[in-house]
Amino acid sequence: MTTFAKTLLYAVLTLCALGAQSQTVYAPSAEHTDTLHITPEMIREIQAKDSIEEFKRDIEGVIFVPKGQWVTGLSVSYTQSNQNNYQFLVLEKLSGDTYSFKISPSFCYMFADDMGAGLKFAYQRGLTKLESASIILGEDAEYSADYVYALQHNYYATMFFRNYFSIGHSKRFGFFNEVQCQLGGGQSKLTNGAGDDISGAYETNFSLNVGLVPGLCLFLNNYSALEVNVGVLGFSYTHTKTLHDRIYPSHRKSKLANFKINLFSVTFGVGFYI
Questions:
Q1: Torsion over CA of 53, 54, 57 and 59, rounded to 10 degrees?
Q2: Quick one: DSSP state of residue 265?
Q3: Which candidate in 64, 103, 196, 232 could, as Cys together with 166 as Cys, close a disulfide (CB 3.0–4.6 Å)?
Q4: Which residue has the higher pLDDT, 257 or 55?
Q5: What is the C-alpha to C-alpha distance for residues 133 and 85, in angstroms, rounded to an integer?
Q6: What is the DSSP string of 7-68?
Q7: Tell me, which fold does domain 70-273 have in CATH?
Q8: How far apart are CA 208 and CA 216, in angstroms?
Q9: CA 192 to chain centre
Q10: pTM of the model
């Protein structure tokens, strides 16, 4: 019986009980002898019934990652490039080499079915050696940079909450949604020029990032899975302190709110489910 029907029946019976005061009501026709006898017990029984039914969406699903399981992961990335008198559009005489390396282990504990919390740690190091480069915008507009050296390394610690859900009834393919809060810091060294014309700077930085990271999980077997995730939205804050030539200090602050898919933040990793 629906909620509206129960409410309507309760109102009718209450009015009848108040009017009849538990008396017997007879049909006006002599041919019919049916009676309706309302007692206080009937009213109390109707009142005791729950008139609000629980709404159920009836979405069927399966447990993708059970409670009590540990999830460990590792993500590694490395890039390197070398240029020798490279030219492209307005860029000419580019010579140098760069590399970037990042490693990030993670640990997560499933405190409920398909719900877990954990920590991530990351170390990133990058080096750029630029011997020469020129930007030519016209006959009288040419900019060049020689002997640029930049070395930087950063550390990050991330707390995250992750929720899994399967695709239909599949236990091999699934999605996850991850909420992250990241703290980081690092330092970098920059020099420009050579000989008596050399100048340099030393920087330290602090960063705070809060974001939402959805992803796709593909189980290769019962204990390992391939994970792909992409940053969608979040907020980041960075504070950088720079000391030029060990004499002149300066500060730089930046804030960024991102509410779109960032294709440059796509990462691949492997997770182990123990």
A1: -130
A2: G
A3: 64
A4: 257
A5: 8
A6: HHHHHHHHHHHHHHSS--EE-SSTT---EE---HHHHHHHHHS--SPPP--------SS-TT
A7: Porin (2.40.160)
A8: 25
A9: 39
A10: 0.67
Residue 197 CB partners (closer than 8 Å, separation 6+): none
Q: CB-based contacts of 80: which residues, under 8 Å, 6+ apart?
A: 97, 98, 99, 100
Amino acid, res. 57: R
Sequence ranges of the domains in the chain: 3-48, 70-273
Q: Does the pLDDT at position 25 exceed 80?
A: no
- Report residue 90's pLDDT band, with 50, 70 and 90 as the boundaries: low
Region for 114 from its dihedrals, namely left if φ exceeds 0, alpha if ψ lies in -120 to 50, beta otherwise? left
Tokens coding 262: 């960032």
Q: Assess contact for 211 and 184: CB atoms under 8 A.
A: no
Q: pLDDT tens across 131-173, in order? A: 777 777 666 666 667 778 889 999 999 999 999 988 877 888 8
